[in-house]
Amino acid sequence: MMPVATRAGHGPRPYKISILYRLQYIFKKERVVFSISALILMLSGACGITGPSIEARQQTISFGTAPQLSQGGSATVTATASSGLAISYSSTTPNVCTVDAGTGIVTDLIGGTCTIAANQSGNSTFAPAPQVTQSITVNFNPDQTISFGPVPVLSFGGTARVTASASSALAVRYSSMTPTVCMVDSTSGLVTDLTVGTCSIAADQPGDTYFNPAPRVIQSITVSAPSGSTVPAAPTGVLATAGTVSNTVSVIVGTTNSGGSPITGYTVTSKPAGISATGTAFPLTVSCPSTCSGYAFSVTAANALGSGAPSEYADVITAYNVVETFYEPDTQPNNSIFIGSFTFNATTGTVTNLRGTLSESMTGGAVGYPNDTMTWLTLNNQLSSVYEPTLGGVLVTTFLLPTTNTLSTAWGGNGWEPGTGNSQYYGFPGALNPKAGGVGNAYARIFVNTANPAAALTQAQVDKLAYADCAAGGMMSSVCMTGTTIAGYGTVGSMSGYPKSQIITKGLAE
Predict the structure, then answer these.
(1) How far is CA 171 from CA 109, 125, 144, 243, in A?
(2) N or C: which terminus of the chain carries fewer CB neighbours within 10 A?
(3) Are 313 and 325 in contact (CB under 8 A)?
(4) Which stretch of DSSP H or E encloses residue 408?
(5) Which CATH number is correct for 239-315, 2.60.40, 3.40.1710, 3.30.300, 3.40.50?
(6) CB 336 within 8 A of CB 498
């Protein structure tokens, strides 16, 4: 029989036993685990302090079969307490996996061993259960995926950072799928906007020894035009010149107001219509189907908001250099040479500003150009331009003096036309001979093919070249030095000189 504690003047009090004996009884007979609160209550009872009675029943936890957990996947663990009370789960390997405390859903973070602990804290009837753990070996999965974080805000002309991660934890590489809209740093994910539009960034992970390459993932960011932006204004300062290749035109612009949004491209159109070209930079080359002659060109600029107004049409105006050579069989050196430049408007088919220098072959020695000692006359007065439809071009003449008066009119003629005046100086016989101090003029005539100024001349075109030198160095008594052909003007030059060649090249006017 169990001993009972008593107090003087009172009978035995049931359930009030000695502390030591009761503890021994609990440990040895019941083999249960008691809580601090149970100990306090026992002490209280031993000391005559009354309170509620509690129990400290033992409980245990047991796990079900360990689930299969794949890398990057999820699974559910199941544990039960013998008390029937709810289990609380926690991960003792948080770098490998996480677990929902209530549901037991485990999420893998990386390969390895995932260990889940199950706990039951007890209640007024049951003592806390000893913690139980379950270890799950994560099944390796060589496939990997990439996921982007939230889409950042990218302002016009600004920067933003995209973030993406691979399920393998390997480093992700970034690239721009829209390089005209934005660019991105391949490692940091820093995106720089270039213009308005949709910026698309790709994330890739090529894999390694253990992981397969991840499927590419793309994140798109919309960049809007800044407030107040408009389409571009009409370009100004448009210039069109002959291209370096036949039947092409090179177009440039001076200034274009972008409208507050970067210009994304330009369009060149012709008048008459039918020729066009597009591009993003200048010079912009326009190809013509057969010839660019007769066309003018306009430029339109566009940005993200659309196309602006067209510029004024620009004529195709090009500077050319010309070298014209006449053979002189009776002089030393044997050539008279005109070296000059002019401007050709292919839209209107007109030549302007023909100027240059003409050599006087009788003033030099035996050494020819360019090491010659000849006198050179400056011809800077373009006073005649005549279109020859049968030749397909223009005969252009520039003079020494600001007048066409060059050859005698004593035998008729207009005072300068090649092959007239008997090759004698203007005013003959009454005027003072230029050789003796009188006024003498000079000229050179070239031919410009209006379809292609740089084209080689036909013989019929060469035959229409001419020159006359009635300055002092070109005089032989009253006769001027001239160069013509019978085919072109009915007579050869005064010293049997005649045109031999003409070469025109694209260049800069003097």
Answers:
(1) 15, 53, 12, 51
(2) N
(3) no
(4) none
(5) 2.60.40
(6) no
- Which residues does residue 160 pair with via DSSP β-bridges, in sequence order? 191
Same fold, 61-139 and 239-315: yes
**Cα 106 from Cα 91, distance rounded (Å):** 9
CA–CA separation, 367 vs 353, rounded Å?
Answer: 31
CATH topology of domain 61-139: Immunoglobulin-like (2.60.40)
Pick from 396, 363, 391, 373: which is nearest to 473 by CA? 363
pLDDT digits (tens, 9 = 90+) for 431-480: 999 999 999 999 999 999 999 999 999 999 999 999 999 999 999 999 99
Give the tokens for residue 45.
Answer: 């009872």
The span from the CA of 153 to the CA of 176, in Å, is: 16
Domain ranges of the chain: 61-139, 146-223, 239-315, 318-506
Q: Which numeric CATH code is attached to 146-223?
A: 2.60.40.1080
What are the tens digits of pLDDT across the range 249-274? 999 999 999 998 888 899 999 999 99
What predicted TM-score, i.e. pTM, was given to this entire model? 0.62
Q: How many of the other CB atoms lie within 10 Å of CB of 302?
A: 19
